[in-house]
Amino acid sequence: MVTVEMTSHLYRFFPQLENRVVQVQSGSVAEVLQQVEQLAAGFTDYVLDERGALRRHVFAAINDALVIDRRTLSDRVPEGGTLYIFQALTGG
Amino acid sequence: MNNLLLLGTRKGTVLVDRTTSGWRPRPMAHDGIPVCYAACDPRDGTLWASLDHGHWGPKLSRSRDGGSSWEETPPIKYPAGARYITKYLPTPDFDPDAPSGAPEYTDATVYKIWNIGFGSHTQPGRLYAGTIPGGLFVSDDGGDSWELNRPLWNHDSRGGDLFAGDATSDNCWGGTPASIDYGVFEPGIHSIVVDPRDPDRIHVAASSAGVISSADGGRSWSGSNRGMRMDYLPNPEAPWGHDPHFITHCPGQPDHLWQQNHCGVFYSSDGAASWKKVSVPGAGVHFGFPIAADEQDGRTAWVVPARSDMERMTIGGGLFVARTSDGGESWQAFRNGLPQENAYDIVLRHALDISGDRLCFGSTTGNVYLSEDRGESWQCLGNNFPPIYSVRFGRG
Q1: Residue B107's closest chain A neighbor by CA?
Q2: Topology (CATH) of B4-393
Q3: Which positions in chain A touch B72 (Cβ < 8 Å)?
């Protein structure tokens, strides 16, 4: 299993993800996000564009390493790892 | 008379009601989220807001109970295979001796839903949405699903059918600075005009391309820029490359269209077949963003002029509205009730609207002004709103 942690901003739109530990099967970032989509319909439309790429101002990391493949999300989230999803800070 | 206003602001949607004690804003809806456009469907009263999330992508929100509750609608998405020819801002490292010889393509994604248009009363459920990067989307089920209008997307002026292969013509559409917020320089559709006599007649305006019209419900499109002039390309009368800031029409005389362009104010009395420049720079009427047309008299229109175009400030520090009632031959400035010193308000393209004798506009500095006498005098509805992106009257 892997854990998905996210900015609390997303709880506003997906309150069903708040106050719980989100754990899904390990896999690629794309596979992990699709499992979150099953828990919260519409979630991927917030973090991905219609091409399946991370939106420009979404920051994603596996443990403490930035996701490299932002376009096809092939980076693997290892068993026991954590996928972090935050909003990228681009201004003061 | 219309007793509801919708404000799209940097921090959410504000509904303003006309009560027995004056105009009163309700608490902010979509609080904290930029709303680039908010409008009311005149057919059924549904309220729409285009949410311009900084991080999470553009969304549409809908209220069917007059604003008491809002729901997010299924997202607008470009279909697989939708591409466009990428435009780049000139950069210091551009090498003029080695320009790219071939067009570069980008897979389309929706950056911004810039405008929402409504079909006629004979087209229940028909909606339009104009986007950056320049796609027109159509819904026939009240916004539950959307489809890209491919004839416009595949237009020869954009390189042809890029679903089918590489470009077969030159791309003539430029970008809009409004896209730079998203780190790109792409075109955007900001104006959608449907002829109430014949809803198959549609005009859209794109920055920076111009006005594009369809007479067959969107199955084919052609440029409607004859008579337009621009002052930033070598050929000022080129068929493409124009920068309409907003176009509108007179609902009672739909062949009368008005355009506040980057390069002046233009008027058409023949259904956009031709345009005539009606700027009067000496009277301050030239540059600006919004324009409103009278609902019955096609020769009457209003603008909120600004200082062109490098500064984008009020003219002489004072805010005024100009009205013509003779098709732009002459303009009258109205200042009563508007600040005449230390005003820096800019009124963006969707932030002026008309309903009967009432007009209302909001500014980037968070001021909202309303007139009940056809623009001749103004009352302030508030000075502390967030920056205002759109002002639209509701229904009823």
Answers
A1: A51
A2: Methylamine Dehydrogenase; Chain H (2.130.10)
A3: 13, 42
